Amino acid sequence: SLDQQIQLIHGKIPGWLGELALNIMEAKKDQEIYLAITHDKEYQLKFPAQQADSSHVTYTTVPNTVVELHSHPGELGAFFSLQDREDEQGYKIFVVLGHVGDDVPDYEAKLGIYGHFAPMKWDEVFDG
To answer: How far apart are CA 79 and CA 37, in angstroms?
Structure first.
């Protein structure tokens, strides 16, 4: 059998960036939030210009994005909507965090290769 594996050329993303992303999303727990993790000499978390409400976010794309993250606030779990699948056409990792603001947020992650997707685990992307 074949095992799928991904290796980020700059190494795994520091876990504290994932925690920071969750903290930012929890601070705005009544609306969807979009964040990007980029790499230009080092990994950085970016919070680009965006318009958001409780069920939708439109945003400005960020160059050198490795991971796109967006949130589902409150009781909405982690899943990729039809709109997400239409938007996610690049070559990068996509993460949705669900139940943001609840006691136990959840996530779904996938590697996107121009409209084709493979599920991923948090520890395949983030260190710690």
So the answer is: 19
Q: Cα separation of 11 and 27, whole Å?
A: 28
Report whether 74 contacts 100 (CB < 8 A). yes
B/e letters for 40-70, b = 16+ CB within 10 Å, e = fewer, are eeebebeeeeeebeeeeeebeebeebbbbbb
> Residue 111: which of 5, 3, 12 has the closest Cα?
5
pLDDT at 2 over 70: no
Asked if 73 contacts 50 with a C-beta cutoff of 8 angstroms, the reply is: no
Global confidence as pTM: 0.89
Give CA–CA dist 13/8, Å, rounded. Answer: 8
- Confidence tier at 3 by pLDDT (50, 70, 90): low
